[in-house]
Write a structure and sequence with these properties.
31% of the residues lie in helices and 33% in strands. It has three helices and four strands; from the N terminus they run E-H-E-E-H-H-E. A four-stranded antiparallel β-sheet has the order 2-3-1-4. Strand 2 and strand 3 form a beta hairpin. The chain is globular, with a radius of gyration of 14 Å.
Length: 100
């Protein structure tokens, strides 16, 4: 089953451009991961310092490989002082199954 999540964080005042640069570089690397299906970065229209990243991985194994990628820890270490939260807030999602 695919592993789908939403990662959210808010750039500190004045840090939005640096956060955008960091997440842009990180996104390019993640999108090259064999098990990554989608890694889309958004800002909230009404609050442009709020970043939302929609991530989809092939399965749990691919997600675990993503977590152990060598560029993940340096990215998070650079991001944390630039955001309001202690870390990205992760929400794991399940598809809605409908029956007709």
């Amino acid at each position: 089953m695919k592993k789908t999540l939403l990662a959210e964080f808010t750039a500190r005042e004045g840090a939005q451009d640096e956060v955008a640069r960091l997440i842009g570089e990180y996104a390019r690397k993640v999108r090259q991961e064999e098990g990554n299906i989608l890694f889309d970065v958004y800002t909230k229209e009404a609050a442009p310092r709020a970043f939302w990243i929609f991530e989809v991985y092939r399965d749990e194994e691919a997600f675990k490989a993503h977590l152990h990628a060598p560029y993940g820890s340096p990215f998070n270490a650079a991001l944390v002082p630039l955001i309001e939260e202690d870390a990205s807030v992760l929400t794991f999602l399940n598809p809605l199954t409908t029956h007709s």
